[in-house]
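ARCHIVE CARD
SHELF: 3
SLOT: left
DATA:
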Amino acid sequence: MNAVRLAVSWLTVAPIAGPSTVDRRGAGRAIAVAPLVGLVLGVIAAAAMWGLGRGGLDILLAGLLTVGLLALLTRGMHLDGLADTVDGLGSYGPPERARQIMKSGGAGPFGVAALIFAIGIQAAAFAALAGHGRWWAIALAVAVGRVAVVAACHTGVPAAPEAGFGALVAGTQRPVVVAGWAVVALAGACFAVPATLWLGPLVVAIALAATMFIVRHCVRRFDGLSGDILGAVVEITVSLAAVGFSLMV
């Protein structure tokens, strides 16, 4: 229960206090249950799309508002991580310089562009899915973003220098945990595209593989994993999964 409390307090704005002290073992357990938190957020997103649509709101505007709701429920930290990571990747110089840019607190042109694309892509994909009643696909896309976080923290991944959150969670997830969540996501994806049962699992596999490639590149570029990279992982994976699930609408 401490792991669940910590995961909820880290990943949402819910007024739930985590343990007073957190070590790597506790942090690892919290990351291991992150997909459960993602599923709850996904169900909320699907419900929001359904409710806004039933209220007569334009479906694309409903998608944009739902993405905004997810940002509100997660303190916008994943979008912030995406912007910081892309700014760091777009910078010149050694890893130390890139990490300084990521910690500067502002969003450069690369980061702003990444935010526009991520928000727009997710809003449009959610709208397409909602237009065909694919509520489970919306919820699963959000959850898969958190499965990718578990995979990004797999054994052997180092933390970036001076990365407080990264130092707690990098390398904490055993292969069996990563594989277990991947299998659950692949199984759940069988129902994401009812007309083509194989498409959902293929989308999940591609989304997770793509984000793991990005994580590997970021770890090399920044000399390790950080919380910003994990935020970017969430937003990129949700975008890829939502777009993939909407291919057969």
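SLOT: right
DATA:
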Amino acid sequence: MAVEPDQERRVTLADVARLAGVSPATASKALNDRDEVRAETRTRVLSAARTLNFRPHASARHLASGRSHTIGLITHDLEGRFSIPTLMGAEDAAGTGDVSVLLCDARGDAIREQHHLQALLGRRVDGLIVVGARTDPRPSLGRLAVPVVYAYAPSEDPDDMSVVTDDVMGGRLAVEHLLALGRRRVALVAGDVGYLAARQRTEGATQALAEAGLEPVGGAALYGAWTEEWGRTAAASILTHHPETDAIVCGSDLVARGALEIARERGRQVPQDVAVVGHDNWDIISAGARPRLTSIDMNLEELGRRAAALLFAAIDGDRRPGVDVVPSRLVPRGSTAG
């Protein structure tokens, strides 16, 4: 049975069934890999579909499978600093299959989150990824009709599925890198103490110093804000009261850029006199700093890939509750080694 090129778009399931010698219902079951179809029948139907260049309509295919082949991603990250890399990772994982990602910005508002949640459920998404703006645990959405994975900010419910970055490891990596370079008088300039990320990064850095028989310059970390101005203020105080400081570990790249500016203003060469490490590996900051900034990368794209992989497994019936921790990594640049 020859099919002219201009007829290919009109090939139907009935045409495939007729060529295979089966009913349309049986052809549909065979094409959707249903168990009740014998292997030889499935082979005959698939051969007929190839011969006719049959392409089932997406909506019909989704109805047959009971899935929409879409997932929703709700973010609370207003600037996209964390959600965009996470989305890219999720789309990488989804890209190998017929899956689309729908992005909604809840803007840190629980009411808006519920609005987007209901809208996505109304679109019959197969699952949800919820991305927080900070790493502090957040309230669970409870049991929904579809699986949910919480990314960056874990759910408070241990029976939920969450993927987080390892901020304690990030703090350790920064200090271990500096110790390996021979630095021994290390100051810690943290972010806002109200954030779990600030406390955990400090925890890891302090642990690494203690294991080397050291403590932070001044005896403790300085907590402040996630801003360049705070980095300037803290670094100025450190270099004034502790001029022997030979390294500064900062809670974020913005804080680190402020520290770099103060070091330069005080005539301290970076990294010869004082080395500086940031956190987040935010390219617009780290690559544009003078010198380029050594930073801790949270592997957010990997976090997104893992979140999507967990979600796809749950959609297929393999639900894995708990918290998956993604390791951080050090990205060395000129601010610690010339």
